[in-house]
Design brief:
Strand content: 35-45%
Shape: globular
Number of strands: 13
Number of helices: 1
Distance between the termini: 69 Å
Strand order of the largest sheet: 2-5-12-7-8-10-11
Structural class: mainly beta
Largest sheet: 7 strands, antiparallel
């Protein structure tokens, strides 16, 4: 075979092979599922600190509502079929408007964790997760707000930097960020300046 014909054949074969490879790998990339960037909301492993499957869990929560300030809102925590239910009704009468529950103190030792997580089903209203440490005066808490979609179970992940030091609705200045190793109590609150019934279902609280 003449040399130029051999070279031409080699070029043609190489070109066809390159085109085939390009089409093959392009198809693979187009059909390969994308990486799950929302792994934490899709069932990634969590450490459960509070699980309402525990029959004794309901007795560890105490209601603290705006009656302490003259308001008439009501709220509390109960367990229904292994699910914690924070529910009641808020009222703006008498300058009130909040309901809350707080769990009995417990040392959680979260110094090596990155935040808090909850599996919840809400009603479209905004809620607060409140964390208590000895860094703040009595009654003050580090709070992070979240607003789950109504009537859908979802996982809410709250990094430590989302928690602000608060006391009676005011942000405290000159206070150190939360030290997760010193958290010894958790609570839930609704204070969204709306009147009416509320219901937040909680399967568990834990850490990412």
């Amino acid at each position: 075979m003449p040399r130029f014909l051999l070279l031409t054949l080699i070029v043609v074969v190489s070109t066809v092979a390159a085109m085939f490879a390009f089409l093959f790998f392009s198809d693979v990339q187009a059909t390969e599922p994308k990486a799950n960037v929302n792994a934490q909301t899709q069932g990634a492993p969590m450490t459960h600190l509070i699980d309402f499957q525990d029959s004794d869990e309901a007795g560890r929560w105490r209601a603290i509502n705006d009656g302490v300030m003259g308001g008439i809102s009501r709220g509390g925590m109960r367990v229904e079929d292994g699910i914690g239910v924070f529910s009641g009704e808020t009222s703006l009468a008498n300058n009130g408007g909040f309901a809350s529950v707080r769990r009995d103190p417990e040392a959680f030792d979260l110094g090596d964790r990155h935040g808090m997580a909850l599996e919840v089903r809400g009603d479209g209203r905004a809620y607060q997760l409140r964390l208590y440490t000895d860094q703040l005066p009595d009654g003050a808490a580090y709070r992070a707000e979240f607003q789950p979609i109504a009537d859908e179970w979802q996982r809410v992940t709250l990094p430590w930097h989302a928690f602000e030091p608060m006391f009676r609705g005011r942000r405290l200045g000159n206070v150190a960020p939360i030290d997760p190793a010193r958290i010894d109590q958790v609570g839930l609150m609704i204070v969204d300046r709306q009147a009416g019934p509320f219901r937040l279902e909680v399967a568990w609280l834990g850490t990412p």
